[in-house]
UniProtKB/TrEMBL annotation:
The lineage of its organism: Bacteria, Bacillati, Bacillota, Bacilli, Bacillales. This is MarR family transcriptional regulator. It comes from Paenibacillus ottowii. Coiled coil: none annotated. SUPFAM superfamilies: Winged helix' DNA-binding domain (SSF46785). Pfam families: MarR. InterPro entries: HTH_MarR-typ, Metal_resp_HTH_trans_reg, Tscrpt_reg_MarR-type_CS, WH-like_DNA-bd_sf, WH_DNA-bd_sf.
Length: 157
């Protein structure tokens, strides 16, 4: 296996291990919620005037899929929709109090996972971080270009 393959396989394996390790606590503390629902909640809380288009672009999902998820979240009482007086066409979302509780649980879990992994990150030098971040940024830009070739603009807002 060449180094390029090692990096790709390494990223995939790291991601899969993180998902596996985090999955049980996430499922236990966020019973009844699918990961896509929790990610919608997270995006809505962190971004003002979230709408279907912005959610779809951010989560790499179709607008149809996001519409279904937001309808479920409204039905569950986690988000509510609103419109601006100057724009009656566009529908935006914000968290309800119940949605904020779910968001807070999710954030607490992320902090717990960060604490678990802190020991390894403390060993990484500034230069190593810079090198990794530079690579991730280049690779991400490359993938954005490939996605655009498919006819999807992931960064339009």
């Amino acid at each position: 296996m060449n180094k390029e393959e090692q990096v790709r396989v390494g990223f995939r394996d790291l991601f899969n291990k993180m998902v596996w390790l985090n999955k049980f606590k996430m499922e236990d503390r966020l019973k009844g919620y699918k990961p896509s629902e929790v990610h919608c909640i997270e995006y809505i809380e962190r971004n003002i005037d979230s709408n279907v288009t912005k959610l779809a672009e951010s989560l790499y999902m179709t607008s149809g899929a996001i519409s279904k998820i937001t309808k479920k979240l409204i039905k569950k009482g986690l988000i509510e929709s609103y419109q601006k007086p100057e724009n009656k066409k566009e529908i935006y979302f914000r968290l309800t109090e119940q949605g904020k509780v779910t968001y807070k649980i999710h954030e607490e879990l992320h902090k717990e996972f960060e604490e678990r992994d802190k020991a390894i990150f403390e060993q990484v030098t500034e230069e190593q971080f810079d090198s990794m971040l530079s690579f991730i940024e280049k690779y991400s830009r490359h993938l954005d270009t490939e996605i655009k070739k498919q006819g999807v603009d992931v960064n339009s807002e």
